[in-house]
Amino acid sequence: MILRADHVAGGFFVAIGLGVIALSHDLPRGQLSMPGAGFLPQIVAVLIVVLGASLFLRAHESPVFKSIAWDDGRHAAKIILITGAAIALYVRLGFVVTMVLMMAALLVVIERKAIPRAFLYAVCIVIGTSIVFAYLVRAPLPAGVLGYW
Amino acid sequence: MEDTLLSLAHGFGIAFQPGNLWYAFIGCLVGTLVGVLPGIGPLSGISILLPVTFGLNATQAVIMLAGIYYGSQYGGSTTSILMRIPGEASSVMTCIDGNAMAKRGRAGAALCIAAVGSFTAGTFGILMLTMIAPPLASIALKFGPPEYTALLVMGLIFLAYMSSSSLVRTLLMACLGLMLGMIGIDNMTGHFRYSFDLVELGDGIGIVPVAVGLFGLGEILSTPSHKVRGEVITPKFRELLPTRAEWRAAYWPIARGSVLGFIIGIIPGSAHIISSFLSYALERRISKNPEEFGKGAVAGVAGPESANNSASTGAFVPMLALGIPTGPITAVLIGALMIHGVPAGPQLVTDHRDLFWGFVASMYVGNLMLLALNLPLVGLFVSVLRIPYGYLYPLIIMFCIVGVYEVNHSIVDVWIMLIMGALGYALRKFEFDPAPLVLGLVIAPIFEQSLRQSLIMSNGNYLIFFSRPISAGLMAVCVLLLALSALSFILKRKDWRAKLAAAEAGEP
Predict the structure, then answer these.
(1) Which residue in A has a C-alpha nearest to residue B177's C-alpha?
(2) Could you give the number of structural domains in chain B?
(3) CA B122, CA B117: separation in Å to the nearest integer?
(4) N or C end of chain B, less CB within 10 A?
């Protein structure tokens, strides 16, 4: 059998639906005259399984899985890693430090920009944004290690 | 009618207050920029800037956010015409003839026709909104839980039917959205559902992290900077005026696009995108010179640009009058109103008249502002296009993180955004449209509550949806749409949706 895109997508949705059904065992389904907290989630989970299975069964109409272009996958993975690291540090280090590091990392690692130029750009943008948020929008940003900033 | 005019006059009084005028202007300006810049659509623009509105009152907030929405429809044409890159999805069709006109030295005329068409269609849409929304809201006041359930089911099925991807794919996305929308405390029984002992998930998954992740971050993940070209055709100011022949060729396409766009805008689905495709197809079909399409036909710019603007206004009718989102953008706007403690729906028209009429009047003013902004300042927007994308997307990611965090000051929300970004990237690879997911997420609480209330009312009898006239009518429409979909599937026939999907993919 040739593995096609909809085999993977359909299988994924069937797994999601079955997972939700398994997680719903402790939720009361109630009765039709008094539906409980698990009533609609289980209907929707069954629908996801049925629709996922129909996608799987009609997969011959979809492109071959190998033909999907993943050439931007490396770019996406790097962004996810750098952004994930920034989110993990955001509250601890604060807005200014985290965002300067994240923007500089994106520019240096992915865009291959020179380190001084990347940091200069990141510092200017982040300081400008924090001033806008502090004085114009008046929305507090995480202060972190730099106190006020 | 007299009452409507008096209310509209009152609305203008509110819209002309300096604060409201200022936020309408900011919304239109940001919206134009959002439309101009490739990689940021109106949905991510609105979602990212949602926290900025927390310090404003509800009227100013909705005026600004709606300005971003309809402003982006104006701005999208600039990039399409000058760079052949759609600034946002609804401008895809403008690329074809708009850029061909630009290459023939008529860039200014194409921009002017797009702007005038957008203004005319936008104003027509607001006029219709002014006339239709209040009576529709008074009808909606008679709706009970069965009617709301039937209306929401019809919305989902309409969305699936109108979508250019398959019915199964759209329904899967909507179901996934419904599932995500049921995470958190059950409003009727107090049970915790799928929250994995995370207190932050008790309130459920917010629309902002999901929308920003799927559309903002997801778009960035699938757009490496080397794929974004930077060639811009710069029009001269004196070239902005179209010739008499070009005006003549634009009149009727603008009129047809305005009417078609508004009608499609009311129907659930990505109305502003579908309307521009249908308008282009219509203009090509009725044209005396269809061979000109693709080579710089004026109608190929005027029709789609008018249709997408009219559709974006039409989408406000069900949102304001019924509280039902027709797409992810109106869903985020409903979320914004709820954050400000204002329920969307018939009560908005009856109990929050200042907000409703102030908002409607601000759209008339906003359309004028956009016309004034888009033509003389085209040079400024062109210079924005020269910022390399490699410098732009780190900035957008920063705003995604800050925007999502500021809604609830919750880092869990930011993690959800990252997960949704990765999901959005994968969904694009497997040709799923993420828009129904956001719609499902937003309607999940209303849908679940109205469905359960209906069943309690009827003592568990599903026939309640078929025994009340309004809900029976709505259910009949659902059955008809499902039958139409099934028929084209059984006959293996290419219906208009399949042709639309083929046109979107650039196939003959």
Answers:
(1) A44
(2) 1
(3) 8
(4) C
- Taking CB atoms and an 8 Å cutoff, what residues of chain A touch B422? 76, 80
Of B425, B429, B460, the CB nearest to A33: B460
| H runs (alpha helix) in B163-228 | 167-181, 207-211, 218-221
Tokens of B9: 């006059």
Distances in whole angstroms, Cα of residue B119 to Cα of each of B128, B146, B256, B326: 14, 39, 14, 22
B264 — pLDDT class (breaks 50, 70, 90): confident
* Strand ranges (E), B321-469: none
By residue range, what is the domain housing residue B136?
A: 2-504
Quote the CA–CA distance of B201 and B410 in Å, as a whole number: 10
Q: Is the pTM of this model over 0.90?
A: no
Q: What interface predicted TM-score (ipTM) does this complex get?
A: 0.94
**B255 vs B199: CA distance, rounded Å:** 53
Using the predicted structure, report yes or no on whether residue A106 has a pLDDT greater than 80.
Answer: yes
**What letter does residue B292 receive in the DSSP assignment?**
G
Q: How many Å is the Cα radius of gyration of chain A? A: 24
Residue that the structure tokens 């996801």 belong to: A48
pLDDT of residue A8: 94
Report the chain B residue with the minimal C-alpha distance to residue A86: B401
Q: Provide the chain B residues 89-118 that lie in CB contact (below 8 A) with chain A.
A: none
Query: Distance between CA atoms of A115 and A104, rounded to whole angstroms?
Result: 7
Q: How many helices (H) and strands (E) does chain B have?
A: 24, 2
> B401 and A83 in contact by Cβ < 8 A?
yes
Q: Which helix (H) or strand (E) holds B335?
A: helix B328-339
The SS3 call for residue A1 is: coil
Chain A residues touching residue B55 (CB < 8 angstroms): 137-139
d(CA B73, CA A3): 40
C-alpha span between B94 and B12 (Å, rounded): 33
* Confidence check: pLDDT of A22 > 60: yes
B454's tokens: 């209906």
- Taking phi over 0 as left and psi of -120 to 50 as alpha, with beta for the rest, A138 belongs to left
Angle at alpha carbon of residue B65, lines to B64 and B67, rounded to 5°: 65
